[in-house]
Amino acid sequence: METKGIIIQDPKHPRDEELYEAARILREGGLVAFPTETVYGLGGNALDDRASGKIYAAKGRPSDNPLIAHISTLEELGPLVREIPESAKKLAKAYWPGPLTMVFPKSSQIPYSTTGGLDTVAVRMPSDPVASRLIHLAGVPVAAPSANTSGRPSPTTAAHVWQDMKGRIDMIVDGGPVGIGLESTIVDVSGAVPVLLRPGAITQEMLKELLGELQIDPAVLGPVEKGVRPKAPGMKYKHYAPRGELVLIQLKEETRAQLGKKGSPLYSQTLRRMTDSGKCFGLDLESFYLACQVNQAAEEKERAGASVGVICTDETIEEYGIAIKRSMGTRGSEASLAHNLYRVLREFDDLGVDYIYSESFSDTNLGRAVMNRLSKAAGYHVQMV
Ligand code: AMP
Ligand code: MG
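Above: inputs. Below: predicted complex with adenosine monophosphate.
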C-alpha cells in the first residue's frame, strides 16, 4: 500500500482543507496516523470492526489489547457508553480536552474488536488542534492507539511514524513534534471507586485532589505477576522496548542516607570528586554520584567489547566518558524528561547499541509516568547501587 503524507502548515491552527482527505479516509474505514498532545496516534473508525482489525494488523498488536476511542466534543461520549458516573463528569470538566483517558461500561455501538473483547470502552478527548479537528471532520469516534509497531517506543514525531508505518497505512498527517511525549493517563470510572490504570501527564496528585478517593492498579507500581490479568491489558506487555538491553541504575536508600550525611566518608569522597571534576556545576550530590555509577557500569560493559549507550541529563552529560550518550532533559523539568524519553530510546535503536544504561529519576508528579515507562522499557531490570 502506498502511504500518503501531508504536512500541516500551522499545527496550532490547521485548516479544514488540509484535513478533508484524512477525514474521508477515516470515515470510509481506512487508517490515518495523526499527532495528539501525548504521542502520534494510528486512527481508524472505532465503530467499524474491520477498521479496528486493520489497526491491529498494521501495529502487529495482540488483539486482546484494547483501543482508545477519541472524540472531539462531550456530546459524542453519550452514545459510546452505558452511563457517565459523577466522577467522570468531574474529570471531564477539569481535564477534557486533554491527556486523560477514562474507561466506561461500553454501549452496543462499540464493537468488541475495538475493546479487545471487554465490556468497557476507553475514551479520550484530545486537546491537540489537529487531532480534534480531524476527529470532528471524520464525524465518527476514532480508535487510535500509538502509531508504533507493537513493542517499539511510541512515536513523538511524524518521522518516527514513517519508520514504523510506511506502506502499512493510508496516510500520515505531520503536525510536528508532540507536546507531552508520553501516553495519556488512564482512569477506570466504571466501578464504585475510580482506579488509576496508567500514569501520565494528569498526575496521581491531580486526580486525588479532584476526586478524593482513587485506587492505584498494581500494574502502575511494578511488574505484573505471571497469570495476573491487569485491568489495563496493555500494561502486561513489555511495551516501549528499545532493541538494546536497557538497565536502570538506582540509588539504594542506604546510599542516599550516606550522601545526605555531611561528614560521612561517601559524602566527603563524592563532594571531592565533584569539585575536582568541575563539570557538574549546580548538580546535587545524589545525581552526581548516580552519574558516576552509571558511567562505571557502562565503561565496564564497553571494556568487555559491547557497544554501550547511556541515558543522562543536561546536568550530568559532561561527566560521562562514554561516547554514546543522550540527555533526556533537565532534572529541573519532569516535562522535559517526558518529552524526550521515546525519541532517545529510538535514537539508541538507530545506533544499534547492545546495552543502554540509564540514570533514574524521581517518581513524583509527571516523574511517575516517566519512571513507569522507563522501567517497563527496561523490563524492570534495575541495578541498585
Ligand atoms: P495505546 O492506545 O497504545 O496508548 O494503548 C491503549 C491502552 O489503553 C491499552 O493497552 C490498555 O492498557 C488501555 N485500555 C484501553 N481500553 C481499555 C479498557 N476498556 N479497559 C482497560 N484498559 C483499557
Ligand atoms: Mg501504545
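The longest strand covers residues 100-105.
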